[in-house]
């Protein structure tokens, strides 16, 4: 992390007083007990006590806090519900932690325009709950949806199990209100579909709190599908399961969800929740189709036929909601199930082209040997997002380090086969130092120039995403090399 | 007279931009050149033309991923995808005829403008399907962002963010886009004789019903016959696409939803032709009117159209969220009135087509709030500090 700013540390009492004048009472927290709750997020291996915590309630307070911090060169770490799995909300020793969880109101539900405007601290699930009575829902459903905030979803461009069909957060956001580090309030987008100029929403969504603090979000809401049915497919050979996924998509079928588990994950889940998963297979697929009843029934027949053609030995189609829920129960409990068979586990988050799955699983087995640690895999087969769970014991000497090295090797493998470091958990601090595996120095410099357009002094969430911080003045310099015409090498007409 | 420079690959694109920087010669960046008229008259001595940076780099139907060079003609892409039963789901409009242009539309042009067609309400715009980009910035430096997979949050989402930047930040040299299966069949349910208010209400109901409507447009009585042969009243068109049995069942459900209203169906071929005409602005092709493209909250669309300047013609797509308005090409072509109306409901109005003398006094792009405009300028500087790429194209000032 960037070295703490000593002059900021030395001025703590003055800074706390200034923040308390903006956010009075319990809205400014500077005692150790109160701040302890904020020392980590969902990536609990990293801990750091914040410098001070503020919990603003109004946009004016957010603007005043950021303006004060901006003018005084004080770093800021934005935080939503704190469920980040990549350390996106990890505090810094010298940074004001701004918790947005008091922004918890639903401001407007507009069924006629199919959108809802909410404050960023509203949980993902609460949006769906607020519109469900009229048959609507908010599509992205990260597995933390009961707890994670929509503001955090915007910061991380959160996904879920339905991304192939319904998109990520970025595909479901219509408008944002943000506050810049200068304390300026900007409204981007709205209830209309296309942006008027640059696509600021695309810059903001997934920017991991490095560009501004979101104070209002307008999301698309969709009519909930008429029905959903799932089928459970078991394959003795993993490659066959992969080919089956490709064949389903090649047949023009886009399932609402398509999840794969490997043998260790199947066994852990079955032992835990008794979902009726076959134990004599190497790969299990859950294929869920949603939409109009007649379509779902029609396509399930096709999926079943494709699966049998591709070597599925187990094939069960849910006959009712209870059975569908049972199929999912094992998958949804996969993480805690793995937690039962290992003192600790680390969840990775690479994405790969689907066809590379057999190669990646084989490579992972070799890496498992190399690092002497077990791994279980759950895989969003529809969109190629892989979640290897590395099993280790943090109390055993050196195992955490080995697990981290194993994880890094897995992500390098994902990049090597044409994938990426993170599909939905974000870069944060966890994968920051792996960024050069995927991007060149020039790629990262251009990304940082975007940062400079929003936050020229690197005050917002520094130490996240980028392995090396360049000063904006340095990044802005340009050397014009030569005045030579590139012709006649380049055709001109 | 504009000199056209036609680089053949990313290295030559970078060379050209570096030369332009050194020579202080701004470049107009064009793909097939079919949308040039939107920017007004040419203002640079040199054009960077991407037509020779063309071709499909890789296409993997089972991964739903297509990688191509930006100069690839749209028709080539659509034929390649159709052969495997797939499509660019955002249904790019072809404004070549509307703008009276020559040439062929390219993928780069769709990416640069982020123009999407009727299916936008169901699946999103060009930006929603972008996965990765290789580009050369206005600094003459190559960079890449994103990748070749659907789920990817590694770094800022520049593949999406550069869509719709009209070539003012960087010149894309390779693009990766998500494709989707093409529907087996489609049916369009046409409700006849609804006024603007009733149409807005009907389209909201249709989009809020579980039949997965993938196109919702309202064609007033003067426009309807130009799109639907034999139409004698306004038509509110609702498209339902997908697998055969599903389309049949959903269409029946939609008919039941609007039972009591005069209605008829257009089956696959007629349906395809109707939506092509709606997408491409066919009712306004070949006239001397100015044409506006307005993006507003869907329920506001029909009213915005109804309140257009006297003598205008208009229709709505995107369930009301996109309004194409043809205004008499006199004065400011209705700019002040239209933009004031748009301000009231939220959204923006772009001047798509206008004679040169009107463009001289009316900005193509809708004015932005001061703070947002300042941020846009800083972003521009972050990619293109000298303003070497398309210097005036996104300007808020008149051409």
Provide a brief overview of the structure.
With 493 residues, chain A is α+β, with helices and mostly antiparallel strands. Chain A contains 18 helices and 19 strands.
Describe this entry's structure for a reader.
The complex is a heterodimer of chains A (493) and B (399). By secondary structure, chain A is an alpha+beta fold. Chain A has five domains: 6-99, Uridine Diphospho-n-acetylenolpyruvylglucosamine Reductase, domain 2 (2-Layer Sandwich), CATH 3.30.43.10; 106-223, 2-Layer Sandwich (Uridine Diphospho-n-acetylenolpyruvylglucosamine Reductase, domain 3), CATH 3.30.465.10; 227-333, 2-Layer Sandwich (Alpha-Beta Plaits); 342-425, 2-Layer Sandwich (Alpha-Beta Plaits); 431-493, no CATH class. Helices cover 36% and strands 19% of the residues of chain A. Chain A is built from 18 helices and 19 strands. Chain A has helices at 6-10, 12-22, 32-36, 59-72, 124-131, 150-156, 163-166, 200-204, 238-250, 263-273, 293-309, 321-332, 334-341, 357-371, 399-416, 435-438, 441-454, 472-476; strands at residues 28-29, 52-54, 75-79, 95-99, 106-110, 115-118, 136-137, 173-179, 185-189, 213-220, 222-223, 227-235, 257-262, 283-291, 314-317, 344-347, 350-351, 375-380, 385-392. In chain A, the strands form four sheets. In chain A, strands 12, 13, 14, 15, 16, 17, 18 and 19 form an eight-stranded antiparallel sheet that branches. Chain A has a five-stranded antiparallel sheet with strand order 5-6-10-8-9. A four-stranded mixed sheet of chain A has the order 1-2-4-3, covered by helices on one side. In chain A, a hairpin with a 5-residue loop joins strand 8 (173-179) and strand 9 (185-189). In chain A, helix 9 (238-250) packs across helix 11 and helix 10 (263-273) packs across helix 13. Chain A starts with 5 loop residues before the first helix and ends in a 17-residue tail after the last helix. The mean pLDDT of chain A is 94. Chain B is α+β, with helices and mostly antiparallel strands and 399 residues long. Chain B folds into three domains: 1-182 and 367-399, Uridine Diphospho-n-acetylenolpyruvylglucosamine Reductase, domain 3; 185-280, Alpha-Beta Plaits, CATH 3.30.70; 282-359, Alpha-Beta Plaits, CATH 3.30.70. In chain B, 30% of the residues lie in helices and 24% in strands. In chain B, the strands form five sheets. Chain B has a five-stranded antiparallel sheet with strand order 4-5-9-7-8. The longest helix of chain B has 14 residues, at 10-23. Chain B is globular, with a radius of gyration of 21 Å. Chains A and B meet through strand 9, helix 8, helix 9, helix 11 and helix 17 of A and strand 1, helix 1, strand 8, helix 6 and strand 10 of B.
């Amino acid at each position: 992390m960037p070295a703490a700013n000593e002059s900021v540390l030395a001025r703590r009492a003055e800074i706390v007083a200034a923040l308390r004048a903006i956010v009075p009472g319990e809205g400014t927290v500077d005692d150790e007990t109160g701040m302890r709750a904020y020392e980590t997020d969902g990536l609990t291996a990293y801990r750091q006590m914040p410098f001070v915590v503020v919990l603003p309630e109004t946009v004016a307070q957010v603007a005043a806090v950021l303006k004060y911090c901006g003018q005084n060169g004080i770093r800021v770490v934005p935080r939503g519900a704190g469920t980040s799995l990549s350390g996106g909300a990890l505090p810094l020793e010298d940074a004001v932690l701004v918790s947005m969880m008091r922004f918890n109101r639903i401001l407007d539900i507009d069924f006629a325009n199919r959108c809802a405007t909410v404050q960023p601290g509203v949980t993902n699930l609460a949006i769906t709950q607020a519109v469900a009575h009229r048959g609507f829902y908010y599509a992205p459903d990260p597995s933390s949806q009961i707890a994670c905030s929509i503001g955090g979803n915007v910061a991380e461009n959160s996904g879920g199990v339905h991304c192939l069909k319904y998109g990520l957060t970025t595909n479901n956001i219509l408008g944002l209100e943000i506050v810049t580090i200068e304390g300026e309030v900007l409204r981007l987008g709205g209830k209309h579909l296309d942006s008027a100029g640059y696509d600021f929403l695309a810059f903001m969504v997934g920017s991991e709190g490095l560009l501004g603090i979101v104070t209002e979000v307008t999301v698309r809401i969709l009519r909930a599908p008429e029905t959903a049915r799932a089928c459970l497919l078991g394959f003795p050979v993993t490659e066959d399961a992969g080919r089956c996924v490709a064949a389903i998509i090649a047949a023009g079928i886009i399932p609402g969800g398509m999840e794969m588990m490997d043998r260790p994950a199947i066994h852990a889940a079955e032992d835990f929740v008794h979902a009726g998963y076959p134990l004599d297979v190497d790969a299990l697929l859950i294929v869920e189709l949603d939409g109009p009843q007649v379509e779902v029934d029609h396509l399930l027949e096709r999926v079943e036929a494709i699966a049998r053609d591709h070597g599925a030995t187990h094939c069960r189609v849910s006959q009712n909601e209870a059975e569908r829920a049972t199929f999912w129960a094992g998958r949804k409990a996969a993480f805690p199930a793995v937690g039962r068979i290992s003192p600790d586990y680390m969840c990775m988050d690479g994405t790969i082209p689907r066809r590379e799955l057999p190669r990646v699983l084989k490579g992972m087995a070799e890496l498992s040997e190399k690092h002497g640690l077990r791994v279980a895999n759950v895989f969003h087969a529809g969109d190629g997002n892989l979640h290897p769970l590395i099993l280790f014991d943090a109390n055993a000497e050196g195992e955490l380090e080995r697990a981290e090295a194993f994880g890094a090797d897995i992500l390098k493998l994902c990049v090597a086969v044409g994938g990426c470091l993170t599909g939905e958990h974000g870069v944060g601090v966890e994968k920051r130092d792996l960024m050069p595996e995927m991007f060149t120095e020039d790629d990262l410099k251009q990304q940082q120039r975007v940062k400079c357009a929003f936050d020229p002094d690197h005050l917002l969430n520094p130490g996240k995403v980028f392995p090396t911080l360049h000063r904006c003045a340095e990044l802005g310099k340009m050397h014009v090399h030569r005045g030579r015409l590139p012709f006649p090498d380049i055709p001109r007409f | 007279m504009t000199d056209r420079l036609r680089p053949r690959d990313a290295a030559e694109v970078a060379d050209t931009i570096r030369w332009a920087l050194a020579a202080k010669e701004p470049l107009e960046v064009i793909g097939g050149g079919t949308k040039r008229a939107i920017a007004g008259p040419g203002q640079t001595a040199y054009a960077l033309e991407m037509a020779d940076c063309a071709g499909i780099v890789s296409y993997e139907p089972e991964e739903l991923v297509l990688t191509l060079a930006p100069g690839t003609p749209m028709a080539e892409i659509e034929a390649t995808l159709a052969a495997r039963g797939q499509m660019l789901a955002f249904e790019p409009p072809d404004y070549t005829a509307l703008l009276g242009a020559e040439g062929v539309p390219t993928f780069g042009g769709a990416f640069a403008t982020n123009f999407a067609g009727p299916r936008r309400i169901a699946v999103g715009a060009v930006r929603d399907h972008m996965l990765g980009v290789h580009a050369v910035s206005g600094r003459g430096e190559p960079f890449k962002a994103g990748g070749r997979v659907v789920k990817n949050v590694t770094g800022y989402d520049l593949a999406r963010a550069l869509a719709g930047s009209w070539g003012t930040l960087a010149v894309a040299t390779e693009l990766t886009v998500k494709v989707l299966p093409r529907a087996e069949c489609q049916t369009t349910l046409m409700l006849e004789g609804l006024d603007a208010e009733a149409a807005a209400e009907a389209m909201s109901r249709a989009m809020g019903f579980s039949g997965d409507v993938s196109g919702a447009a309202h064609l007033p009585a003067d426009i309807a016959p130009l799109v639907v042969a034999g139409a004698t009243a306004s038509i509110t068109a609702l498209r339902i696409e997908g697998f055969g049995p599903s389309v049949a069942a959903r269409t029946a459900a939609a008919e039941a939803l609007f039972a009591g209203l005069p209605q008829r169906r257009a089956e696959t071929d007629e349906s395809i032709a109707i939506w092509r005409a709606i997408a491409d602005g066919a009712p306004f092709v070949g006239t001397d009117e100015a044409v506006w493209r307005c993006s507003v909250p869907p329920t506001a669309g029909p009213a915005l159209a109804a309140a257009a300047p006297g003598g205008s013609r208009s229709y709505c797509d995107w369930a009301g969220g996109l309004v194409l308005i043809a205004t008499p090409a006199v004065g400011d072509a209705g700019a002040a009135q239209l933009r004031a109306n748009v301000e009231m409901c939220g959204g923006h109005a772009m001047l798509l087509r206008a004679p040169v003398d009107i463009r001289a006094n009316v900005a193509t792009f809708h004015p932005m709030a001061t703070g947002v405009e300042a941020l846009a300028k800083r972003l521009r500087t972050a990619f293109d500090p000298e303003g070497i790429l398309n210097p005036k194209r996104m300007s808020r000032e008149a051409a």
